[in-house]
Amino acid sequence: VWELFWGHWYGCPIVFALPEGHKDPCYLIQLIELEKISILHFVPSMFALFLKALEEKQKLQSAHLLPSLR
């Protein structure tokens, strides 16, 4: 759970997904864009789903998605 404290140690805001929102990669992409999130923490299975959704969305758009991510 160190991830929950890390941002506060360095003065960063922490953004939480809505309940059950962490299971929806499309919602997460929208949240990251809206909040300009730069650092994420995923479990491996959800990360794979997130990357798949991101690739599909990027095919529909010519611009680079999520420029805030490092």
- Backbone shape: globular
* Share of β-strand residues: under 5%
Secondary-structure-based class equals mainly alpha
Q: Averaging pLDDT over every residue, what do you get? A: 84
Q: How large is the radius of gyration?
A: 13 Å
Please outline the major beta sheet.
Answer: none
Structure characteristics:
51% helix, 0% strand, 3 helices, mainly alpha, 70 residues
Topology, please?
Blueprint: H1 2-9, H2 25-35, H3 44-60
Helix pairs in contact: 2-3
Describe the model:
The chain has helices at 2-9, 25-35, 44-60. The two termini are 21 Å apart. The model has no long low-confidence stretch (mean pLDDT 84). By secondary structure, the protein is an all-alpha fold.
Offer a concise description of the structure.
The protein has 70 residues and is an all-alpha fold.
